[in-house]
Amino acid sequence: MGAYNVKYKERNFKGNNMTVDLRSDTITKPTPGMLDAMMNASVGDDVFGEDETVNALEEKTAAMFGMEAGIFCPSGTMTNQIAIKCFTQPLDELIADQTAHIYRYEGGGIAFNSAVSTRLLNGYRGIITAEMIGPEINAENIHYPHTSLVALENTVNKGGGSCYTLAQIKPIAELCRNKDLKLHLDGARIFNALAHTGDKAADYGQYFDGISVCLSKGLGAPVGSVLLADKATIKYARRIRKVFGGGMRQAGFLAAAGIYALDHHVDRVKIDHAHAQILSEALTQCLWVSNVLPAETNIVLFDTIEPATIVLAKLAEHGIKALPTDTHRIRFVLHLDVHPEQVEYAVGVLKGM
Ligand SMILES: *Cc1c(COP(=O)(O)O)cnc(C)c1O
């Protein structure tokens, strides 16, 4: 722990200039404990199925969510794109909210990888309902693309970390079952959603055909995501992962970081949520801020009176890094490399601007 603190200070307190990097929860670096786990991993060739640490991560994650099997992939994008490929045929259509990461931030992969079109809905902060989905399912007709998949995101990135509860998901799962549609969850931040709603991971499996779980967001692993599904789907997913260039060899070094993250970093996301609350409350008191969206999890979205680029430049002068999500909107993301002292410092900067 002492060594950790020294390293931590080197990283974040350069002289008297404090840096607070709120750009994303992907910027975290492995902790000493995580690095130890990585260095001590037992590995093998995972394309041959011989990496026992990868196998253990896949089994562990699947068991946590009450699903049959899992496949470790280099990125969340790859897990989502493989799921879409597994659950659709070319010329099909999927339904998602217009903010969906699979649609906005995966480079048009839905069309490129799966030859599938996308029907977009206007949810509330990315949250859609069975009532909204129902009318968008195409009837069987030679003119219409065949609707075969619904994709949800929890938490919703562009919604500012907004959450579905399982009670909200249940009617969507029932609709999909009745209409013979597959249901996929982009769970890049699923542990943030679970921490906020109090729902249990083990209850998720029964509602979804596929779940993507990111290890490199709030959980703080350097690389990787796991796609969960039934055994037959995961068997096919291994074929698709190879085609996408995602078959890795001694990936156990990375999987060990994921196992460590699942064992040690799940509960602590609540700290990030508390930090988000503190920043959110400070922002509501700032005259240069016109609106703060409710911070449910580890993301704070707020609107600025001046253009976001001007505000971001002022924040940068004080060592606070963040990203714009619109011309007058800024996003703060809390994560395990943001310490309470840094939050306190950031509150001082925000109130002084
Ligand atoms: C980050 C993220 C992903 C996956 O991103 P990668 O950078 O490819 O790991 C997927 N969905 C959401 C909602 C995300 O925020």
TrEMBL record:
GO CC terms in record: cytosol
Keywords linked to the UniProt accession: Lyase, Pyridoxal phosphate
GO molecular function, one term: L-allo-threonine aldolase activity
Domain of life: Bacteria
SUPFAM superfamilies in the cross-refs: PLP-dependent transferases
Cofactor(s), names only, from the UniProt record: pyridoxal 5'-phosphate
BP GO terms, sorted: glycine biosynthetic process; L-threonine catabolic process
Residues of the Aromatic amino acid beta-eliminating lyase/threonine aldolase domain: 21-302
N6-(pyridoxal phosphate)lysine modifications at: K217
Family according to the record: Belongs to the threonine aldolase family.
Protein name (Swiss-Prot/TrEMBL): L-threonine aldolase
